[in-house]
Design brief:
This protein is an alpha/beta fold. Helix content is 22%, strand content 21%.
Length: 537
């Protein structure tokens, strides 16, 4: 018997080939991951000095919300983003595809960070960084728009009970979030579920197959809310546009446009006010507090090869950290370890979690999954009887190997934030450690559901994370209650805020995190604008 009691794979199909058939899952292959290339210094020692009222670091779900609400409150704001701006449109070639993966896929490395791709290239400021830790690799977006450029778009709101289990410190906020913050995010992102006519089309056979099998495996099926303009998908179905949605070739970004990512929603509105300036290719190296109690950011402006073009020192009245859980946590762990900010909370670097992520490949099901698999991840299932809340979602695989049908099936659920970050002086960075058994109870339940899917629908399940654990949903490191208050204010430090996933301890109620990160940012910014504006900054 193969792993998890499944029958042996089809003769001649190696594990490497099977993982290649589910390219999103192959991120688990440790041999494809490496630390990014360090930026090379320029010859100039001149430092540019800037003075700002407010600086936002990062342009993902937290950063986009923060920038817009500051602008609407009349605050001139500089937004720093290490990645590039990636404009798209019908039939654009902005992003690379899985079949022709190149250096646009990876942040300053000389090889791929996903998939079984045996090629090298010149390092480039591509869209995806693999942050390698002890026991876990965190996949992080690097682009104007942050992780919203890369994610499938699953915009899920947890139940009140599951929210409270994941984030007990903030349980009292849920009614407000449900009343107006979650709906605001949904409206801003133009969220909807897959239309009937699109789901009924040939490229979505694999989605319909999952829908049919899910109830037989004890799951309650549902359609996933997504920030998609479905007219673009229909345009692919009629041949008007080259396929990208309808082949699920969207993990590095959607070339055809129509995805309501943060760069074209929140950030675009913020920039339209004239008060927000977004600065791509600006890497924040250090955060300090000066003798006047103002915040000082040491920033490198780099080129697309990582070479430093300019060193910048920014003094600000308020800093809003939204660099994603790994980015924000690493910056604050460094600041504390190097004594750049005195008396930072001891909890910084704690309560990190992987949102319970696990990526599986459903190999050779009995039903008809079609010859291509449409996306984004538009159907899922919930287990109402699970002792630990969990969700399972089908995401189409953009690459299929001859003779193999492989469906990507993703599981996630509620876990404790058991991960920690510690400063490494040699690398001048913080390194993640994740206990290998931290999510064992949840993963046993997810594995059982995966086996049930295969038992009901034929074929077998392959755990693509079995060799090396990874997550696309980093959470925690600067937890609410211990390091920041419920509005994201760093305890004991006026004018320093954390409004991204770093403040959420480990998981977001058996949902992917984007919706909750953005809703909490909306809630916090309403409080900050009302209470801190004109007083703190």
């Amino acid at each position: 018997m193969a792993e998890n009691g499944s029958p042996h794979p089809t003769p001649g199909l190696s594990r490497r080939r099977l993982l290649g058939a589910t390219a999103l899952g192959a991120v688990a292959l440790g041999s494809t991951l490496a630390r990014p290339v360090r930026a090379q210094a320029s010859t100039s020692a001149v430092v540019t000095e800037l003075r700002e009222r407010a600086v936002v670091v990062g342009t993902g779900f937290g950063g986009g919300v923060t920038a817009l609400r500051l602008a609407q409150a009349g605050v001139s704001t500089l937004v720093l983003e290490r990645g590039l701006r990636w404009p798209t449109g019908p039939d654009a070639t902005t992003f690379c595809r899985f079949a022709n993966m190149d250096n646009r896929s990876a942040w300053l490395t000389d090889h791929a960070v996903v998939g079984s791709v045996d090629k090298t290239w010149t390092p480039y400021t591509g869209v995806l960084e693999a942050v390698v830790g002890n026991g876990m690799t965190a996949m992080c977006g690097a682009a104007v728009g942050g992780g919203s450029i890369l994610y499938h778009g699953m915009t899920l709101q947890p139940t009140k009970a599951d929210f409270a289990t994941s984030i007990p410190q903030a349980a009292g906020l849920y009614d407000d979030l449900n009343l107006w913050a979650y709906p605001t995010v949904s409206r801003m992102l133009g969220v909807s579920t897959i239309p009937y006519d699109v789901l009924a089309s040939d490229p979505y056979k694999s989605s319909r197959l999952f829908q049919d099998i899910a109830p037989k495996a004890g799951l309650t099926p549902f359609k996933v809310p997504l920030p998609i303009d479905w007219s673009y998908v229909r345009g692919e179905l009629t041949g008007q546009y080259d396929p990208t949605y309808t082949t699920s070739d969207i993990a590095f970004g959607v070339n055809n446009g129509g995805k309501h990512s943060i760069d074209v929603t929140y950030l675009a509105q913020a920039e339209s006010t004239g008060l927000v300036r977004v600065a791509p290719l600006h890497v924040v190296r250090d955060l300090a507090l000066d003798t006047n109690k103002r915040w000082v950011l040491s920033v490198d402006r780099i080129d697309t090869g990582g070479t430093v073009q300019e060193r910048i020192r920014i003094t600000a009245d308020a800093v809003f950290l939204n660099a994603g859980s790994p980015g924000t946590t690493r910056l604050l762990v460094k600041s504390r370890a190097k004594g750049l900010v005195p008396d930072l909370p001891d909890a910084i670097g704690t309560k990190w979690g992987n949102n319970g992520d696990r990526i599986w490949a459903w190999i050779n099901p009995s039903g008809d999954a079609g010859t291509q698999q449409g996306g984004p991840a538009c159907v899922g299932g919930r287990d109402p009887a699970s002792s630990i809340p969990l969700t399972v979602v089908h995401a189409g695989s953009p690459v299929q190997q001859p003779g193999v049908t492989a469906l990507t099936v993703v599981g996630f659920g509620i876990v404790d934030g058991a991960g920690t970050w510690a400063y490494d002086a040699g690398a001048d960075d913080a390194v993640l450690t994740w206990p290998t058994d931290a999510d064992a109870a949840l993963q046993q339940l997810i594995a059982a559901r995966m086996r049930d899917i295969a038992a009901a629908g034929g074929g077998f399940m392959l755990d693509t994370n079995a060799q090396a654990a990874s997550t696309w949903h980093s959470l925690g490191g600067v937890p609410m209650g211990d390091a920041v208050d419920l509005s994201g204010r760093v305890l004991g430090h006026k004018g320093l805020y954390v409004l991204d996933g770093a403040r959420i301890p480990g998981s977001t109620g058996a949902c992917n995190p984007s919706m909750t990160i953005a809703a909490l940012a909306e809630h916090s910014m309403r409080t900050i604008v009302r209470q801190d504006l004109g007083r703190v900054f």
